[in-house]
Structures are given as structure tokens and as C-alpha cells.
């Protein structure tokens, strides 16, 4: 029962953060509509899914925090984390004055959900690569 309550409270916290994030995105969308400056929206849409991915893994990390020896699984971090981080930041990279950004056209043609999913994957595997 104690474990159930622990995860139930974490899910409530994650839902509150999701709700707050959705409200904040509406505020940013209104700001972009009035100022014609989309950079805050691109920053938000690139970083918010990473935070969500971190929140998904955080309860398990907190549960295992008492174990003392920590290390980093570099293979997992570089093999999964780095490509997903790159795809998650493509909306921001697309704003750079570079003539051709690798994979930018492909992700734009697939849709805006690809950087969101990649951000969640990166946030999750960023904490998942910590091992004890």
C-alpha cells in the first residue's frame, strides 16, 4: 500500500506539472501572437518535453537514491541520449543561421510530435543512464 501511495502521489505531481505547462504554453502562444517573436515558443517546446521525461524517471531514481555508488552508462547516454537530444532541439537548431541542418527537413516533414517524443526520451534516458 505504501508503494502504491508513493507512485500515486508522483502521478498527481506529474499531472499538476503537465497542467501548469499547458497553461504556460497558452500564455506563450498569446505572447508570440502579439509580439511576432517565436523564439520563446521554440525554447519552450524544445525543453518542456525533456522536463517531462525527467519527471517520468525521477520516482525510480529517488527510490534508489540510498544506494551509495553511482556511475554513468556512457553507451546508453551517447547511443540513445545524444541523438534524441539533437532531435529534441531541432526547432531551436532550425533558427540558427546555418544553411542546411542535418535531419531538419525530415523531422519537419514528419511533424511536430517527433521533437516532443525525442525530448521525453532524452529526459528519461538522461536519468536512466545513471546507474548504481
Please explain how this structure is put together.
With 132 residues, the chain is mostly helical. It has one domain (2-131). It is 77% helix and 3% strand. It is built from six helices and two strands; from the N terminus they run ααβααααβ. It has helices at 2-35, 39-63, 74-88, 90-93, 104-110, 113-128, and strands at residues 71-72, 130-131. It has a two-stranded antiparallel ribbon. Helix 1 (2-35) runs antiparallel to helix 2 and helix 3 (74-88) packs antiparallel against helix 6 (113-128). The longest helix is centred in the first third of the chain and has 34 residues, at 2-35. The radius of gyration is 17 Å and the shape is flat. The two termini are 26 Å apart.
Strand order of the largest sheet: 1-2
What sort of overall outline do the alpha carbons produce when their principal axes are compared?
Answer: flat
SSE order, one letter for each helix or strand: HHEHHHHE
Note the main sheet.
Answer: 2 strands, antiparallel
Report the end-to-end length measured between terminal Cα atoms: 26 Å
Keywords: Membrane, Transmembrane, Transmembrane helix
Protein name: VanZ-like domain-containing protein
Organism: Virgibacillus byunsanensis
Transmembrane segments: 7-27, 39-62, 74-96, 102-127
Main traits of this protein?
about 130 residues, mainly alpha
Quick recap:
This protein is mainly alpha-helical and 132 residues long. Helix content is 77%, strand content 3%. A two-stranded antiparallel sheet has the order 1-2.
Amino acid at each position: 500500500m505504501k508503494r502504491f501511495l508513493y507512485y500515486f502521489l508522483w502521478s498527481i505531481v506529474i499531472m499538476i506539472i503537465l497542467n501548469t505547462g499547458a497553461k504556460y504554453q497558452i500564455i506563450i502562444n498569446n505572447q508570440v501572437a502579439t509580439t511576432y517573436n517565436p523564439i520563446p515558443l521554440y525554447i519552450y517546446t524544445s525543453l518542456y518535453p525533456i522536463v517531462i521525461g525527467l519527471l517520468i524517471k525521477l520516482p525510480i531514481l529517488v527510490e534508489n537514491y540510498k544506494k551509495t555508488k553511482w556511475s554513468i552508462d556512457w553507451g546508453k547516454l551517447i547511443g540513445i541520449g545524444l541523438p534524441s537530444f539533437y532531435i529534441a532541439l531541432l526547432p531551436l537548431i532550425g533558427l540558427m543561421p546555418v544553411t542546411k541542418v542535418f535531419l531538419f527537413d525530415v523531422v519537419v516533414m514528419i511533424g511536430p510530435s517527433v521533437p516532443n517524443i525525442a525530448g521525453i526520451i532524452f529526459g528519461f534516458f538522461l536519468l536512466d543512464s545513471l546507474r548504481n
